[in-house]
Amino acid sequence: MEEYTGVVVSQIPCGTVIMTLNNLLGEEILQHSESDSKSAEVSTNQLNGKIVGLYFSAHWCPPCRNFTPKLAELYKELDSEVKDKLEIVFISSDSDQDSFNEYFQEMPWKALPYSELTSEWQENKQYLFITTRET
Protein backbone atom coordinates (compact mmCIF):
# COMPACT_ATOMS: atom_id res chain seq x y z
CA MET A 1 0.00 0.00 0.00
CA GLU A 2 1.17 3.47 -0.86
CA GLU A 3 1.49 6.20 1.73
CA TYR A 4 -1.10 8.97 1.20
CA THR A 5 -0.38 11.20 4.18
CA GLY A 6 -1.10 14.82 3.31
CA VAL A 7 -2.61 14.01 -0.09
CA VAL A 8 -5.90 15.60 -1.13
CA VAL A 9 -8.53 12.85 -1.07
CA SER A 10 -9.75 13.69 -4.60
CA GLN A 11 -6.24 12.95 -5.92
CA ILE A 12 -6.24 9.35 -4.65
CA PRO A 13 -7.23 6.96 -7.47
CA CYS A 14 -10.67 5.39 -6.99
CA GLY A 15 -10.47 1.86 -5.64
CA THR A 16 -7.05 2.40 -4.06
CA VAL A 17 -6.67 0.50 -0.81
CA ILE A 18 -5.25 2.95 1.70
CA MET A 19 -5.87 0.88 4.78
CA THR A 20 -7.46 -2.52 5.24
CA LEU A 21 -10.24 -3.04 7.76
CA ASN A 22 -7.83 -5.14 9.83
CA ASN A 23 -5.39 -2.20 9.90
CA LEU A 24 -8.15 0.19 10.85
CA LEU A 25 -10.15 -1.89 13.33
CA GLY A 26 -7.68 -4.51 14.50
CA GLU A 27 -7.86 -8.27 14.19
CA GLU A 28 -11.05 -8.72 16.24
CA ILE A 29 -14.33 -6.89 16.79
CA LEU A 30 -17.21 -7.52 19.17
CA GLN A 31 -20.41 -9.30 18.27
CA HIS A 32 -23.40 -10.00 20.48
CA SER A 33 -23.88 -13.63 21.44
CA GLU A 34 -27.10 -15.11 20.11
CA SER A 35 -27.59 -17.21 23.25
CA ASP A 36 -27.27 -14.48 25.91
CA SER A 37 -26.55 -10.78 26.42
CA LYS A 38 -22.77 -11.16 26.42
CA SER A 39 -20.43 -10.16 23.62
CA ALA A 40 -17.75 -12.25 21.98
CA GLU A 41 -14.76 -11.29 19.90
CA VAL A 42 -14.90 -12.38 16.26
CA SER A 43 -12.48 -11.96 13.39
CA THR A 44 -12.54 -8.67 11.52
CA ASN A 45 -12.21 -10.84 8.41
CA GLN A 46 -16.00 -11.38 8.68
CA LEU A 47 -16.31 -7.90 7.19
CA ASN A 48 -14.39 -8.75 4.02
CA GLY A 49 -16.48 -8.28 0.88
CA LYS A 50 -19.17 -6.30 2.71
CA ILE A 51 -20.13 -2.68 2.72
CA VAL A 52 -19.10 -1.49 6.18
CA GLY A 53 -20.67 1.49 7.89
CA LEU A 54 -18.69 2.92 10.79
CA TYR A 55 -21.14 4.28 13.35
CA PHE A 56 -19.46 6.92 15.52
CA SER A 57 -21.63 7.48 18.59
CA ALA A 58 -21.59 7.87 22.37
CA HIS A 59 -23.76 7.05 25.37
CA TRP A 60 -23.47 10.64 26.64
CA CYS A 61 -24.63 12.24 23.35
CA PRO A 62 -28.40 13.11 23.31
CA PRO A 63 -28.75 13.19 19.48
CA CYS A 64 -26.93 9.83 19.31
CA ARG A 65 -29.19 8.34 21.98
CA ASN A 66 -32.18 9.48 19.93
CA PHE A 67 -30.86 8.14 16.62
CA THR A 68 -29.47 4.76 17.73
CA PRO A 69 -32.87 3.08 18.40
CA LYS A 70 -34.10 4.22 14.98
CA LEU A 71 -31.02 2.85 13.24
CA ALA A 72 -31.29 -0.40 15.24
CA GLU A 73 -34.93 -0.83 14.22
CA LEU A 74 -34.08 -0.26 10.56
CA TYR A 75 -31.11 -2.64 10.78
CA LYS A 76 -33.25 -5.41 12.31
CA GLU A 77 -35.82 -5.03 9.52
CA LEU A 78 -33.27 -5.55 6.72
CA ASP A 79 -33.83 -8.71 4.75
CA SER A 80 -31.15 -11.40 4.85
CA GLU A 81 -29.86 -10.57 1.34
CA VAL A 82 -29.00 -7.02 2.42
CA LYS A 83 -27.61 -8.17 5.80
CA ASP A 84 -25.25 -10.51 3.96
CA LYS A 85 -23.75 -7.49 2.16
CA LEU A 86 -23.84 -4.81 4.86
CA GLU A 87 -22.35 -4.52 8.32
CA ILE A 88 -22.32 -1.67 10.82
CA VAL A 89 -19.48 -1.32 13.31
CA PHE A 90 -19.95 0.90 16.36
CA ILE A 91 -16.99 3.15 17.13
CA SER A 92 -17.51 4.57 20.62
CA SER A 93 -16.69 8.03 21.85
CA ASP A 94 -17.60 7.04 25.40
CA SER A 95 -15.21 7.88 28.21
CA ASP A 96 -15.38 4.57 30.09
CA GLN A 97 -15.95 0.84 29.60
CA ASP A 98 -19.24 0.75 31.57
CA SER A 99 -20.85 3.43 29.39
CA PHE A 100 -19.65 1.60 26.29
CA ASN A 101 -21.07 -1.72 27.55
CA GLU A 102 -24.45 -0.25 28.43
CA TYR A 103 -24.79 1.56 25.11
CA PHE A 104 -23.55 -1.37 22.99
CA GLN A 105 -26.26 -3.59 24.50
CA GLU A 106 -28.81 -1.48 22.60
CA MET A 107 -27.17 -2.23 19.25
CA PRO A 108 -27.70 -5.28 17.03
CA TRP A 109 -24.43 -4.81 15.10
CA LYS A 110 -20.73 -5.25 15.78
CA ALA A 111 -18.38 -2.89 17.63
CA LEU A 112 -14.74 -2.00 17.94
CA PRO A 113 -13.78 -3.20 21.44
CA TYR A 114 -13.50 -0.33 23.91
CA SER A 115 -9.98 -1.50 24.76
CA GLU A 116 -8.96 -0.73 21.16
CA LEU A 117 -10.02 2.91 21.41
CA THR A 118 -6.58 4.28 22.12
CA SER A 119 -5.96 7.99 22.39
CA GLU A 120 -4.20 7.85 19.00
CA TRP A 121 -7.32 6.31 17.40
CA GLN A 122 -9.53 8.96 19.02
CA GLU A 123 -7.25 11.79 17.88
CA ASN A 124 -6.95 10.54 14.28
CA LYS A 125 -10.55 9.51 13.57
CA GLN A 126 -11.33 13.00 12.27
CA TYR A 127 -9.03 12.28 9.32
CA LEU A 128 -10.76 9.07 8.29
CA PHE A 129 -12.09 9.08 4.73
CA ILE A 130 -13.36 5.94 3.07
CA THR A 131 -14.30 5.80 -0.59
CA THR A 132 -15.34 2.65 -2.38
CA ARG A 133 -16.25 3.85 -5.86
CA GLU A 134 -16.65 6.89 -8.04
CA THR A 135 -19.94 8.71 -7.86
TrEMBL record:
GO terms for molecular function: protein-disulfide reductase [NAD(P)H] activity. Keywords: NAD, Oxidoreductase, Repeat. The keyword Ligase does not apply. Pfam families: Thioredoxin_8. Its EC number is 1.8.1.8. Belongs to the nucleoredoxin family. This is protein-disulfide reductase. It comes from Rotaria socialis.
